[in-house]
Amino acid sequence: xxxxxxxxxxxxxxxxxxxxxxxxxxxxxxxxxxxxxxxxxxxxxxxxxxxxxxxxxxxxxxxxxxxxxxxxxxxxxxxxxxxxxxxxxxxxxxxxxxxxxxxxxxxxxxxxxxxxxxxxxxxxxxxxxxxxxxxxxxxxxxxxxxxxxxxxxxxxxxxxxxxxxxxxxxxxxxxxxxxxxxxxxxxxxxxxxxxxxxxxxxxxxxxxxxxxxxxxxxxxxxxxxxxxxxxxxxxxxxxxxxxxxxxxxxxxxxxxxxxxxxxxxxxxx
Length: 269
Known about the structure:
alpha+beta, four-stranded antiparallel beta sheet, 8 helices, 25% helix, globular
């Protein structure tokens, strides 16, 4: 609704908060109660595509990055230079097998270009799928008796951004407060209508939207090149990346065809 304008977002955020509060964790998406709330919000002119996927029947699930194009901890993460309003998105990432079983979890940063996505939902690919813009790690923790999906459901992910200018931003995101259960998200991603033969890594979403002013009053937060982003959880370690322009990050050059040739060359096929 702000159309990528951070100043307008402040007033809109307050307007939406008055209507729905700041906790939708007890509202089941797609339920009759959620649909009644939707009718009220439409009547108030406060509905948006983000509320649709937040409390409507269908989750927002999109392709973030092709296989082997993600980056790990310690690598530079990419920001498209066309963006002037962007932020990190600290998230849990589920590891889902080809048959839909959730077998593990890790941390992720779903780098977000708020101004690009805000101009049009049809620019989601431009806002999300860019060089070095999908960070995961520092490791995948497989589920066992000591770490299960219930642990994920109750995890709080912390975020710290440290800028070369001395700016520091801290925040957190509680998976327990996200409106959709992790198992529901995985079931919407993979099943009879959409398959991933090699499985998939699924970002669960974040409750964190940084609003701390950085450069100008009312301007909110946006990254500057050189920011060091640390996303952490006690059970999953810490994912640390430095923000750079996408064209200055290491380009993605090793795809599926390169993997097949590499395996063949080593006599492993």
